[in-house]
Amino acid sequence: MTTIEELESILAESASAAPVWRHSTALERAAWLRAAADALDANAAELVAIADEETHLGQARLTGEVGRTSGQLRLFATVVEEGSYLELTIDDADAAATPPRPELRRLLVPLGPVAVFSASNFPFAFSVVGGDTASAWAAGNPVVVKAHSGHPRLSERTAEIVRAALHAAGAPEGSLGLVEGREAGNALVRHPSIQAAGFTGSLSGGRTLFDLASSRPDPIPFYGELGSVNPVVITEAAARARGGDLAAGLVGSFTLGAGQFCTKPGVVFVPAEAGFEDAVADAVTSAAGGRLLTDRITAAFPEGIAHLQADDSVSIVALGADGEGARPVVLTTDAAAVAARPEVLLEECFGPVTLLVRYSGEDELRAALRAVPGSLTATLHSEASDDVSEILDLLQQHAGRVLFAGWPTGVAVTWSQQHGGPWPATTSVHTSVGATAIRRFLRPIAFQDAPQHLLPLPLRDDSITSLPHRRNGELRLPERTAR
Amino acid sequence: MTTIEELESILAESASAAPVWRHSTALERAAWLRAAADALDANAAELVAIADEETHLGQARLTGEVGRTSGQLRLFATVVEEGSYLELTIDDADAAATPPRPELRRLLVPLGPVAVFSASNFPFAFSVVGGDTASAWAAGNPVVVKAHSGHPRLSERTAEIVRAALHAAGAPEGSLGLVEGREAGNALVRHPSIQAAGFTGSLSGGRTLFDLASSRPDPIPFYGELGSVNPVVITEAAARARGGDLAAGLVGSFTLGAGQFCTKPGVVFVPAEAGFEDAVADAVTSAAGGRLLTDRITAAFPEGIAHLQADDSVSIVALGADGEGARPVVLTTDAAAVAARPEVLLEECFGPVTLLVRYSGEDELRAALRAVPGSLTATLHSEASDDVSEILDLLQQHAGRVLFAGWPTGVAVTWSQQHGGPWPATTSVHTSVGATAIRRFLRPIAFQDAPQHLLPLPLRDDSITSLPHRRNGELRLPERTAR
Hints:
2 copies of one chain form a homodimer. Helices cover 41% and strands 17% of the residues of chain A.
């Protein structure tokens, strides 16, 4: 565990690194991000072996996750080079206006040292150099990571490898700090040096840290992804047309990674009459669960199921294959019970379990959907003949990503991804995955009547035209430069 | 005072209006914003007369403020029509990727009913239909305003006039609610219907509301502008070259509106040796103060000055003209005292007072600047011969707008304005003035593999090309349509 003295020393290094990151050019930061990505890829075999020992997630999944993580670092290098994230804006002076208008030039600048809290379920993509770290770096901030207790050796080794790569690429010492232990994590989010925090984890842990961040003498933004039941709606027409395929798809999605994805479909609204439960029961019989990530999650899984089963409306539809670790479970209830007791029936339960909610008619479905807490995703399976406009409007109000004819597990890291949603899915109106995650770690500054040589580089006349920018209200693309 | 029953009824109307606003087109919202602006202008004489009775700010200033406020509403109509604020983004499907990538389309959508807390010092521009309301409407949200107790009749009359205009333009009932009283305000920010809040006011009042918003079972974003001392730095070379002009400019700025601007220069770092205090003493003698906005502010002004004078380092430089209301005051202290006791010497004091801080050499100046709390603005007066790079870097870390050779009072409402800064200037990494203030009241949604007819209008193939958007990472301007 990191002591308070060690934490102070790590944060002092981070504070020393902050001005170097703040003044770094786009080319420098892009090179640092790519150096980190290359180091991950070059050391993937060693890292995956450690990760598999600590998480039981398996080589194939973990190897894919390394690629996703290095790809994410490279995407942010591209984002930095492209330059739109700076939101460069000029309004020219206007002496004829009443009152006369000064020249104003605006851009986004980094906040300063960022705390990142790792998740257990993605030991690469949401951990030491995962999306929060990549986007905080891209914005120009050093990062101090709170390692997850589920993979401590992997966290340390990843940090060592990436630090060496950053050092070789010219980034300052203090670019990537690492602390361990709950006490250190709590102290981190309260520390005056830390200017923002990113978090992926449980509702209770995230709420505690959110409250610590918000109750500081100087509150800081806390970008937390806390929990999500990811509702799925299947219309009667869809269940009748392709119930078997939907059942197989659902089972594949809710058991993926032993049901430990934050986008796991946890509650599925199914027509009462269409025989969909039988189709799911058939599909789940041969489905495997697996060892869960940590002792705490392993203990919580049967407790969560027992908690649901304690409700009179809930019964078991079927179990999956009996193997090592957690066995998949499909439960069922009805829409009236969900509408009446959402706090009991719609709590996120980590692991390979999903709850089918039988509805009779759209009124009952709508009433139950209104009770669904904010989620990362909402999925609709319907047929062209269905009028889904009202259902879709409801789903949009409860989620950050709306999917059609697919399954929510699997989050593409792209420019238009949105990984976030109304509370408790996230604590903010921003995404934690995809290019725009960078906005979380930036703040705007405007310069009024500044001499050219005192402006930040991107705002000067000789560089702004080579970047996307807005001038007097008009959006302008970069002028192509001769190569 | 609004009772809790009345509040519930107002919020029920607002909740009914929310889907109409959410589904409104850009053209509709732009028309509603312009209707509100036109109604303000058409009724300016009546409104200014009420405002002058309630605030003593004078006809000229108030008339100008109406124009600024209607102009602000029209700017947001333009922002809505221009469309960049939607952040439209498409990533086309890629079946060849590993794993195969779905189609993703992303845009920003409104949050739902927004609470706006009016300020006393701008009874139009930061009140019932001021910047927070205009930007929340532009984003597509109904608004419930907590009226400021300093101008209750003006608030009611403004709301009446604007509601009639919105109704005539086709906007729904419940687009603009108004509540009065502290209890109603506190209940407002805790109410489940309210999805975000905007606030301009005092540090203590803002902190209370921020804590209420953050401690909700479902925390909401609270965008508060709480307090700012707006540091000014004058280099020795500038003081020697144009001390008289700078003194006159400073006096004009800190006494503007009787010193009740949130951008008032409250602390001015001046070279100890250059005789600048004498120049200010000369300039202030004939400067008028004026009646302050409310009884509370009137009582707090001498208390704030007494609080500063209780510090041994502080003495009076000069007083302004003795007239009706508050008399301008210039105080002085030294940089070592400021660095040692910033919590005493750098507290915002509303009214016509400023504190000159004598420094000897840049080391002393830098140490004192590090103690300055986050501010809306920071101003530098230097000569071309000065090396100001380190000072400027410090000022940028403490402010959201950095001015050169000007004065911070006066905030142009433009695309590149930034009105916000590190805590306690604001509680967020966004501006409350200017085009990008709209981002505060929006959240992203991504649509995965959606059929065209189920996408929101701007994301469909037949409209996205007529709006700024990004496709597969490439920023694209709207295609010109034939007219």
